[in-house]
Amino acid sequence: MPVAIAPSAPAPPKPVILWSHHRSCSTAFVRAFIAHPGTKVAHEPFLRVSALSGVDTIHGDRAFENSDKSPWYNVTRMDIASILSDNALPTFDSDGKLQADAADERTVFVKDMAQSAFRGEALAALRTDTKTFRGPDDAHTYQPPSPIDATPINPTIFPVSVLRKFTHAFLIRDPTRAIPSVVRGLSDVAATRPGARPGFSSEVAAYICYLEQRILYNFLTDPESEFNTAPWDNEGGKEQFIQQPQPVPLIDASDLLEDPHKVLSQFCNAVGIPFNPLMLKWDTDPVEEFDVPWRLMFKKAEGSSGFERDTRTPEEIARSLAEEDALIVKDLIKKYRGDYECVKP
């Protein structure tokens, strides 16, 4: 008598992380996934920790005053990653204790800055022209890849066993469009902090993270990196998850804004989330996920109802800047052009 063979269980939902940089149209991308009925969104959870935590900070000084009153103050990025890697969202109970939300069938979609995944000592080693970042006093020294596109060691705070529990993707934007907006946005946010100096500074410029995107992208794609060569442990075995697509999905914002339907469809197919037309339009109600001290950065995206092309030329964008900012922007575009060109599809 033939023996019936039970069908193999489908792979569980695997959370997706989109690694971006400031002003890469990532907030609009988040709005698309908030509108998707099959996903639930964690918006910049690691950035929140690095800015508000007192036990896991990448900064030389506390990023925001009164952060000790935030429930995020006693949280680490590993605490958050442990919850997200189980396809759940981090929440806080009435006593401010971190917990996972109720399980359901939706896929967790995370958007964060590539920089927010990095260890403080890695950022300090990469950003020797600023004292914005630092690692713990007992941290091992991080050795940046040399040359820059050599196989990098893991620059993140997360072990490979945790990183492999996510599907990773990247969103980038041409510096001629992103950096002018970064200068305005980060300057506005910095100005809200007590004792802030007026104008744009090297400390604020340190948050322009094209370099971190380049290194993280290389770490996840390089076939010789630890991410792709380390043995799989028994608990998080290879067969347990949908495999990381290679090359890692990468979107240029210009393509996204040119044809949102096409690009979102391709992206969803690559990361294992069914495309839904509801992703293309959304309402303009306030977004709970944007309730952070740097909410000013999301003002335009929060008031939008869909993806909007910026039809201005780079020259028109440059002319819209104050004279002192225009010179800063020109230098920053030149500085980060190479990082963008090396990653762009």
Automatic annotation (TrEMBL):
Domain of life where this protein originates: Eukaryota
Pfam families reported in the protein's UniProt record: Sulfotransfer_5
InterPro entries given in the database record: P-loop_NTPase, Pyrrolopyrazine_biosynth_F
Protein name stated in the entry: P-loop containing nucleoside triphosphate hydrolase protein
Species assigned in the record: Sistotremastrum suecicum HHB10207 ss-3
